[in-house]
Amino acid sequence: MTERRGDHLWRPYTQMKLAAPPLEAVATLGSRITLADGRELIDGIASWWTAVHGYNHPHIREAVGNQLGQMPHVMFGGLTHAPAERLATRLAALLPGELNHVFFTDSGSVAVEVALKMAVQFWLNRGVQGRTRVLAFRGGYHGDTMGAMSACDPVEGMHHRFGAYLPAQVFCELPRMPEQEAALDKALTTHRRELAAVIVEPLVQGAGGMLMHPPETLATVARLCRRHGLPLIADEIFTGFGRTGMMFACEQAGIVPDILCLSKALTGGTMALAATVATTEIFTAFWSDDPAHALMHGPTFMANPLACAAANASLDLFETEPRLAQANAIEKRLTKGLEPLRGAAGVVDVRVLGAIGAVQLGGMPNLAALKSRFVEHGVWVRPFGDVVYLTPALTISDSDLDRLTDVVRLVIGKGM
Ligand code: PLP
């Protein structure tokens, strides 16, 4: 076997025997990715939905540079530091209701693991045994670690072949219709002694296919959780920080979950950081004279000072620059640019919410061909399954955004 460039790298979600070699990126700025061969691509997906301020924002760069000179990292067990303290205080102030207690980790999947552990131990600490399962929704995606995988869609989801190794959770359809609401209510009643929590992606199931549901559906989930006395975990790892048009998608439905997970855009897409935020009620169940009631979790790089500095700088930008107005303007432009595809041959649906636009195709396209077609047209768009989607930086220029929707229309309009 001849050795190829990249042979030592094992790439994500990739059948490496079949896939074309990856493109080499050498620089990023704003909404642009520069490749080693000199080509420049307009990024339509903001690096897996993270780079909300565009790439390489000088304010974040400066904050991380200053922190790098002072203290790049220090363990968080028994020590604390100003960037983490400040970030936790700011997140608690920004988040709705009594979401006041912030546990930092280093990836979205781990933030979900922590949320699941918090929910299970919440009951144990209150002396209730047996509540070890969560109710999750069909179409959902919560990450790639074992607990997070167990809450992903068990049939359509990318992790279905691990089913036998994962904790068995309870699954329902999102309650969009009265019958689904009744089914959810019934499942919550049937499993009431074994459920620790309900987990949901507010307003948009991202990796499940950019499936959007109205605020009323989320409000129904929250109401049923209250009725059944169950904590609600909101996974805002994709939706948090302006992606759906408000700072947090939960706010659009006027609900306050008991536990909320953040990552991705938390650092403006620059560093690995995540947060699992709990209400005072959840936290109180861990506040005890009994050492066994402590939350036993602590990743080595939790609350990394560089990442916290980046996140603080990112929050500054939400205060000083009109990100939410930009998200709302993007919604209008995405609608204008993608709606003409509704009814086109091979198009089943067009969905837009905030800075998320999705075009659902009728059949499974040749993904590799589709991806390279986009690159040929100078844009970085990575469809998954039968969905072509755009989740640009909130700072993208009108002309770059129009170019993205023009290319999507062109490529899809040509019947792929
Ligand atoms: N939860 C949601 C809703 C996500 O969209 C993702 C990632 O796409 C995750 C969890 C997992 O995050 P990470 O890839 O950082 O582990």
Describe the structure.
- The protein has 416 residues and is an alpha/beta fold.
- It folds into two domains: 25-53 and 321-413, Aspartate Aminotransferase, domain 1, CATH 3.90.1150.10; 60-320, Type I PLP-dependent aspartate aminotransferase-like (Major domain) (Aspartate Aminotransferase, domain 2).
- The chain contains 13 helices and 16 strands.
- It has helices at residues 46-49, 58-70, 82-94, 108-125, 146-150, 178-190, 215-227, 249-253, 280-284, 305-320, 323-338, 367-376, 398-413; strands at 25-29, 32-35, 40-43, 99-105, 133-137, 170-172, 195-200, 204-205, 211-212, 232-235, 259-262, 274-279, 347-353, 356-361, 379-380, 387-390.
- The strands form four sheets. A seven-stranded mixed β-sheet has the order 4-12-11-10-7-5-6, with helices on both faces. Strands 1-2-3-15 form a four-stranded mixed β-sheet.
- Helix 2 (58-70) runs antiparallel to helix 10 (305-320), helix 3 crosses helix 10 and helix 6 packs parallel to helix 7.
- The mean pLDDT is 96.
- It binds pyridoxal-5'-phosphate.
- The site of pyridoxal-5'-phosphate (PLP) has 14 residues, from helix 4.
